Amino acid sequence: MDKYDFSWRIIQENLPELINGLIITLQISVAGMAFALLFGLFFATLRFSQYRILNIVSNSIVQVGRSLPLFVLLFWIYYGLSLKFKINFTDFQAGALALGITGGAYMAEVFRGGITAIDKGQSDAAFAIGLNRMQTSRLIVLPQAIRIILPQTVNIYVGLLKGATIVSVIGVADMIYVAQYVSLETFRPFELYSFAGVVFIALTLSVASFAWLLERQLSGKSRRG
Amino acid sequence: MLEIKSVSKSFGELHVLKDVNLNVAKGEVVCIIGPSGSGKSTLLRCMNFISPPDSGEIVFDKVSWRSYRSKFNVLANLRYEKKLPQLRAEIGMVFQHFNVFPHMTTLENVSLGLQKVRKIKKDEAKQVATKSLEQVGLSDKLQVYPDQLSGGQKQRVAIARALALNPKVMLFDEVTSALDPELVSGILDEIRRLVREGMTMIIVTHEMKFAFQVAHRIVFMDQGKIVQVGTPAEIRNTQEPRAKAFLSSILE
Question: Which CATH number fits domain B2-95+167-251: 3.50.50.60, 3.40.50.300, 3.30.70.260, 3.20.20.60?
Fold first, then answer.
């Protein structure tokens, strides 16, 4: 085997594009996470509805959403909807939506777990002083559930962050796309992808430490009694 | 003031309440006793629809309340849901496991209902809440979170939280059962204070001595039914076999 000379210069030379790609990765994952939170909360709420039919619908959507490979979902949204129903999303929108649906399916379960972990006595007491359902969720149950939900939410975000790299297949110029593109010209995929890998490690670590700080903040202010 | 009219409730196959009727007058103290599983707590929870009865009616202050749930008319269900808090705000309830809100300070626990239900401004709500906490002897714990309170103190917070809303009736659901023995009498003293103030109260309890002391009437329940209602003297000398067996087993 030939000796392989690393050429990290390639990173330096293409740094602006790579950074641009990184920014797009971040944007699409954040947009995806925003959708995921909305979808997740919505479907978790349906799971708690008194109407059985809503429980079943929400449960099915969550199951399907969790089972579908992101890749397939992305193709359906980007090409399928466009071909069949003339609903056209930009590549960025399609990517964010696909991430949102997958993440939302997971978030629904996380929300449900967090909410069921709160003692029913808490909502009993809230109802007993005359709070309505909305107030009880917003003021009593959710603030307590957040401490359970937060660590898992961070996990899901890290998943979405990595999942966001798949949008390169529909031509979003994210960091992986840029790395791929540059390596076609320079024949230096190893350096480029390794760089991307290190960046993702750094990203994940910073997200995790941010979550850790947030968790500490929350538990300092309000412990379970 | 509070009338329970042929209330029934079941959890699946289990009939917890079978056609229960009870009238509670203004200023009256009613203690409900009976073996565990006899439906005492469920009856109490039906009164403010925390567990809505399957059938029957609760008449509170001349207004009738029934469970309502339409299978199809979602809007009607929502309208009904929206009315329930009005009833609940007039009925204070204290629970066996305190159920104080762990993410709020003592003061926030008590002022929450004042702000969100009674729509009182924050500053004024804090004043009322402070007063209410002073009355239960917690004026030095206003800014403390519940995890730094003893069980007895948590229960005092829960009592203050209910009383701050100035309810017309108070429901007590085995409020001393989860307390360490040495803390029980303090909470019972709080209830005695309310008896002296003439509060209408319905108390589910296992503290027999206390029940016979404070109650105007005692209700003995067994297997989802009210077996006997009477003054403490009448119940003490009851000839009803089940009540007699229960009392002799407990008053050893």
Answer: 3.40.50.300
- Structural domains of chain A, with CATH: 16-224 (1.10.3720.10)
ipTM over 0.90: yes
> How far away is chain B from the Cα of A145, in angstroms, using its nearest Cα?
10
Angstroms from A215 CA to nearest CA on chain B: 14
Question: Taking the CA atoms of chain A, what radius of gyration do you get in angstroms?
Answer: 21
Q: Does A117 lie at the interface with B, CB-CB under 8 angstroms?
A: no
pTM (2 d.p.): 0.78
Where do the structural domains in chain B lie, given as residue ranges? 2-95+167-251
φ, ψ for residue B53, nearest 5 deg: -65, 150
Q: What is the pLDDT of residue A135?
A: 93
Give contacts of A 45-84 with B, CB under 8 A. Answer: 50-51
Which chain A residue lies closest to B85 (C-alpha atoms)?
A: A130
CA–CA dist B94, B156 (Å, integer): 9
